[in-house]
């Protein structure tokens, strides 16, 4: 897993979500990959792949990309 791969995946997914293409039901993101659930009767799977490739081509530099995040500190206790 690479940090740049993670941010690339997040950026591509966010761009796809913002387009709100009809036929895309759900986008599930993991660290460096994603699963896209579609209704093939409403959107051609090849069109989704083409859109993902276009988004990937647009994202070459991550310096201007910002994401909202938060840090959660979970204390752990040993010796149970």
Folded structure, characterized:
Strands 1-2 form a two-stranded antiparallel sheet. It has 80 residues and is α+β, with helices and mostly antiparallel strands. The protein is extended and about 55 Å long. It has a single domain (3-58), classed as Gyrase A, domain 2 (2-Layer Sandwich). Helix 1 crosses helix 2 (45-58). The chain has helices at residues 3-19, 45-58; strands spanning 24-29, 34-38. Helices cover 39% and strands 14% of the residues. It starts with a helix and ends in a 22-residue tail after the last helix. The protein is built from two helices and two strands; from the N terminus they run αββα.
SSE arrangement:
Blueprint: H1 3-19, E1 24-29, E2 34-38, H2 45-58
Antiparallel strand pairs: 1-2
List its salient traits:
2 helices, alpha+beta, 2 strands, Gyrase A, domain 2, 80 residues, two-stranded antiparallel ribbon
Question: How many separate structural domains?
Answer: 1
| CATH architectural name | 2-Layer Sandwich
Largest sheet: 2 strands, antiparallel
**Overall geometry:** extended
Q: What are the segments in which pLDDT stays under 50 over at least 5 consecutive residues? A: none
CATH fold call: Gyrase A, domain 2
Side-by-side strand order of the widest sheet: 1-2
Structural class by sheet pairing and helices: alpha+beta
């Amino acid at each position: 897993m690479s940090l740049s791969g993670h941010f690339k995946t997040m950026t591509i997914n966010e761009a796809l979500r913002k387009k709100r293409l009809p036929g895309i039901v759900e986008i599930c993101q993991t660290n460096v990959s994603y699963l896209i659930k579609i209704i093939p009767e409403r959107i051609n799977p090849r069109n989704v792949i083409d859109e993902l490739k276009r988004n990937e081509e647009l994202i070459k530099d991550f310096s201007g990309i910002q994401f909202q995040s938060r840090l959660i500190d979970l204390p752990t206790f040993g010796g149970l």
